[in-house]
Design brief:
Rossmann fold; Immunoglobulin-like; 5 domains; 667 residues; 34 strands; 5-stranded parallel beta sheet; 29% strand; alpha/beta; single chain; 24% helix; 14 helices
Length: 667
């Protein structure tokens, strides 16, 4: 038997006090006069024997009461049968991700059970043990050892985190020493999500010294609906055109969901509502018609009535009316068919420049530059074209009848050649599976007459052929150049070389090229775990510090401007889900929406039996499914054989005090 506070054993010296009182009775005797003392001697002998026994029993009761009272303060305990619960350092990982809000048996959440478990485990170790507590936030407070009282106080301040961590990341953050003589105990308390835990065994097999305790908290089987994907059917939103919002909802829980209510809100106004049934692991795709007049920027949300896991019931996004696509055409004949195509002022801002009179300072702002009918790229156009590719601008090249192949090859850095005997050939039907033609045609399965064209030059086949001749030669090809895209046509648009400009394909193909060239950021929302957010703004000022203002305050993230884009670096521990306004000198220039990490919504867990099978060959790894913190701590006490005895000592102290009272009263 050992003592937790052996200093209190000095209190045993108090045992001398009742002994001294017993040996020296300080009461003064009183004289009593009797008229007849003949029978007094016999009575006196009988009373003295009884009183002596009574005093000895009372003395023993007092001594034992004091003994066990001192032992109770010294806190005796039986030592463990093995080396457990004697380490100087204990590491805790408490998973405080949003998925820990799932319920366990009863009304308790997995997060609350994890908190109770830490407090219960701390009580098993000696007072001098040091602790480190790591959470998903990876805060600085987890770097330094703390006492048992400090770790209990710190755990009361924990809240849910929007950050997900793998077991590998957690152990790397813990920096558990693998080369110490005395092992450390590591407790990994989590719901062990399949989507976020990572390779558990691969991480633990690297450390064979320290003791690892995997404590999966089993959550109840519940459904959990969340928005997985959200996008516009047409890439740009205009008030004058109908559009649809496509929403894909998944069930990441372990139970089927029935009659779940889904609502669409636009600027806090309910726009549409519907109900869905989704089996566990399944999904459903919804579409909402977007009609009416919208503001330039609209803060929207999808709301799902889904209980009991509610952290991901709101999905935030921003709908923005599209800006006009900036298009510049450079040629030697202003009367071109392209000018008529891009005459829609709501969609495009079209300008034409003669090849000898290009306003380069204005043209550099274009999102699509068309070189139409040029025989060659002169000394000014060559560096200008290459700078367009570096900045991410798209370029469409429509050749002339007779091109300078050397000039083209030098500018585009790819070999070109003239067709020696041009022949008019029909074009092949477009490939409806090509992503370029997505959302262009309602149905192109039927037979239709294709246009014909005469190729005046060809190039080494590279990139993606969007439209080909029936003989397989390219007619319209897309090639990646730097940060931009280069679209190459093998024939001029004049009717003597091609009737493509008069065909039904012409306008939608040109529209698609123009809309794909728009550099406007059409991302409707971001994940809080994305880290980097890229924004296209109308006017960027390099000297300005941009801010994000949300419901919880204003953030100033790390930022830089690259290729006319504002790149902002988010800190997960500082940001929260919801809407944020992008401020430039206190002026609102954009709005963004942040949402939870979608992997957190996949609440299916790795069960204790699966974990046990993963680590069955690792002797220093133990797996225990947590039903309750009390049952687990009882298992630990039973496993290591240790027991606290102070309660029994206190009970015995009270028993002997009661015995003393009874002896003095009735004996």
């Amino acid at each position: 038997m050992n003592f937790l506070y052996p200093t209190f054993l000095w209190g045993l010296t108090a045992l001398a006090i009742p002994v001294i009182i017993h040996l020296f009775n300080f009461r003064r005797p009183k004289k009593v006069f009797f008229s007849n003392v003949r029978f007094l001697e016999a009575v006196n002998k009988k009373s003295s024997s009884k009183i002596r026994l009574k005093h000895l029993l009372a003395l023993a009761a007092r001594l034992l009461a004091i003994l066990f009272l001192v032992l109770a303060f010294a806190q005796p305990y039986l030592p463990e049968k093995s080396a457990g619960l004697k380490t100087q350092m204990v590491y805790f990982y408490l998973d405080n991700s949003q998925s820990m809000s799932a319920p366990v048996l009863g009304n308790t959440t997995a997060f609350d059970e994890a908190y109770n478990l830490i407090n219960a485990i701390v009580d098993l170790y000696p007072r001098e043990t040091q602790y480190k507590l790591i959470t998903n936030d990876f805060s600085a407070s987890g770097n330094s050892p703390v006492t048992s009282d400090e770790i209990k106080e710190f755990s009361t301040e924990l809240t849910y985190s929007d950050k997900s961590r793998t077991i590998s990341e957690v152990i790397s953050r813990m920096e558990v020493d693998q080369f110490v003589i005395d092992r450390s105990d590591v407790f990994l308390i989590s719901d062990y999500q399949k989507s976020t835990s990572g390779e558990v065994r691969q991480t633990l097999v690297l450390d064979s010294v320290n003791s690892y305790n995997l404590l999966p908290i089993g959550t109840a089987a519940v459904p959990n609906l969340y928005v997985d994907t959200l996008f516009l059917e047409k890439p740009f939103l205009f008030n004058s055109e109908d559009n649809r919002l496509i929403v894909r909802i998944l069930n990441g829980g372990d139970e089927d969901a029935f009659d779940a209510l889904v609502k669409l809100f636009i600027e806090d106004n309910q726009f549409a509502t519907t109900t869905v049934d989704i089996v566990k692991g399944g999904s459903v795709e919804l579409s909402f018609d977007l009609t009416g007049d919208f503001s330039p920027v609209n803060k929207c949300s999808i709301s799902i009535e889904d209980y009991p896991v509610v952290f991901d019931n709101e999905y935030y996004f921003v709908l923005k009316l599209a800006n006009r696509v900036n298009i510049v055409e450079v040629g030697d004949d202003e009367a071109t068919s392209l000018g008529a195509v891009f005459a829609n002022d709501q969609l495009f801002r079209y300008r034409y420049y003669d090849v000898g009179n290009v306003d380069y300072s204005s043209a550099v702002e274009a999102q699509l530059v068309i070189f139409n009918g040029l025989d060659q790229f002169n000394s000014a156009l060559q560096p200008f074209t290459q700078s367009l590719f570096r900045s991410g601008t798209s370029v469409l090249i429509v050749p002339s009848e007779r091109i300078d192949s050397i000039s083209y090859s030098t500018t585009l850095q790819m070999p070109f050649g003239m067709k020696r005997a041009p022949v008019r050939v029909s074009l092949a039907p477009v490939n409806s599976d090509n992503p370029f033609f997505e959302n262009i045609f309602d149905d192109i399965s039927g037979r239709y007459e294709t246009p014909t064209a005469t190729a005046v030059f060809d190039w080494t086949n590279r990139g993606s052929n969007l439209i080909s001749f029936i003989n397989g030669q390219p007619f319209l090809t897309r090639v990646s150049k730097g940060m931009g895209q280069c679209y190459l046509m093998s024939s001029p648009l004049e009717t003597e070389f091609s009737d493509f400009s008069r065909h039904a394909l012409f306008v939608p193909v040109m529209y698609k090229i123009a809309l794909n060239s728009a550099r406007e950021n059409n991302q409707l929302s971001f994940s809080i775990n994305d880290g980097l957010i890229s924004l296209e703004l109308d006017s960027l000022v390099y000297e300005t510090v941009y801010q994000l203002r949300g419901s919880l305050g204003t953030l100033v993230p790390n930022q830089r401007i690259v290729n006319n884009k504002l790149i902002m670096e988010l800190q997960t521990d500082e940001s929260a889900v919801g809407f944020y306004d992008v401020l430039q000198n206190e002026k609102k220039v954009a709005s963004i929406a942040l949402n939870h990490n979608k992997s957190e919504s996949q609440i299916s867990n790795i069960r204790a039996q699966e974990l046990q099978e993963m680590v069955s060959d690792l002797s220093n790894v133990d797996v225990s499914e947590i039903v309750s913190s009390e049952s687990y701590t009882n298992e630990i006490r039973a496993a290591y054989g240790g027991a606290n005895l102070w309660k029994y000592a206190l009970i015995l102290c009270l028993i002997f005090l009661l015995a003393e009272v009874l002896i003095l009263r009735f004996l």
